[in-house]
Write a sequence for this structure.
């Protein structure tokens, strides 16, 4: 060890998800700059595990599986870590993990700077569990030293629903490895419709869960296909609504024109080969998929959901923004974009505003502001 106290990041797992990808990217980037970085996970599994740099210390908290508690069972292990490893700062990721980390932080009597990171918009959750987690965040807020939000909209929701002042929330955008995305986008997608001139591919990418509202995507696509029979829809991702969405496609009479390839290791070939990416989400934080599509030069249409799309698409200047749940408006946005696609270079340039170099500079400035003595120092053992 260098003798310096490490920076710590806590995320439940390394499975596919925007928050997980962002956490790995930031941890890797800070380690590359010379900081001692610990990455703590409740469950040491997932596709992103292989992307963690060797100089990031990956710590498996070996959280037991207890029905009804979930990652709450990680509190004892997190408490031990905070007492024995004494990190200087700990960033937690996503609301439930934030709650768990703040509880462990209090039980450990830790002096680490506690930084809960909010990747989504608060106040839009529907399930009793999500509402409880959000309520608990408000009760634990005084244990946090500073909150990080991934967008201005997410920051405003923290102020409103957690009850902290705006000065206690810092906006740090998600870093997107734009040049890596562009490089990987050169590998063609293994799909019969992508890259075929006679088809216009309308792409959706994300978890097949209610938040993403792919039912609205399918209903909009039916309208688009009626007007432009050459269109085909591909929805990349997996989730609990796969069967329901397949049935909806059949009910809409478009099942032969819609493909569900599931999880793919490289969605960027799909983005580069698509005519447009449509995001139908009900709520987000700072949707990575929009920035990745822009990096691939893929035009985008999005719901103007809280939060992130308005910021990313500069109020609709980069791509159409439509009301949440309005299938007709989403279809109109897709048709307009297909008929008159934007300049691809402009899309790529906007994506570069979220490149890791810029975001990591902001993270380093944040760390220096809250840890005045912090400086990069390589681990030697």
């Amino acid at each position: 060890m260098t003798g310096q106290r490490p920076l710590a990041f806590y995320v439940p797992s390394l499975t596919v998800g925007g928050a997980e990808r962002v956490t790995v990217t930031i941890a890797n980037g800070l380690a590359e700059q010379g900081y001692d970085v610990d990455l703590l996970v409740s469950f040491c599994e997932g596709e992103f595990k292989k992307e963690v740099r060797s100089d990031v210390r990956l710590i498996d908290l070996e959280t037991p599986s207890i029905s009804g508690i979930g990652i709450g069972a990680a509190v004892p292990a997190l408490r031990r870590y905070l007492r024995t490893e004494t990190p200087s700062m700990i960033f937690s990721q996503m609301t439930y993990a934030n709650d768990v980390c703040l509880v462990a932080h209090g039980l450990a009597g830790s002096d680490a700077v506690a930084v809960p990171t909010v990747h989504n918009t608060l106040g839009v959750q529907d399930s009793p569990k999500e509402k409880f987690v959000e309520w608990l965040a408000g009760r634990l807020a005084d244990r946090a030293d500073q909150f990080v939000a991934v967008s201005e909209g997410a920051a405003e929701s923290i102020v409103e629903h957690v009850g902290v002042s705006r000065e206690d929330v810092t906006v740090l955008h998600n870093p997107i490895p734009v040049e890596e995305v562009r490089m990987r986008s050169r590998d063609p997608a293994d799909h019969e419709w992508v890259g075929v001139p006679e088809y216009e591919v309308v792409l959706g990418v994300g978890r097949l869960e209610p938040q993403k509202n792919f039912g609205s995507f399918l209903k909009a696509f039916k309208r688009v296909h009626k007007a432009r029979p050459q269109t085909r829809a591909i929805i990349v991702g997996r989730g609990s609504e796969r069967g329901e969405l397949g049935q909806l496609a059949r009910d809409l009479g478009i099942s032969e024109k819609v493909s569900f390839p599931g999880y793919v290791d490289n969605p960027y070939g799909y983005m580069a080969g698509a005519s447009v990416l449509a995001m139908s989400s009900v709520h987000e934080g700072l949707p990575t998929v929009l920035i990745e599509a822009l990096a691939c030069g893929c035009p985008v249409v999005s719901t103007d959901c809280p939060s992130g799309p308005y910021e990313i698409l500069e109020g609709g200047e980069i791509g159409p923004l439509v009301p949440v749940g309005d299938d007709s408006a989403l279809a109109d946005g897709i048709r307009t974009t297909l008929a008159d696609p934007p300049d691809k270079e402009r899309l790529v340039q906007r994506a570069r505003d979220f490149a890791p170099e810029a975001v990591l500079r902001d993270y380093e400035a944040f760390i220096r502001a809250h840890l005045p003595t912090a400086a990069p120092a390589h681990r030697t053992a």
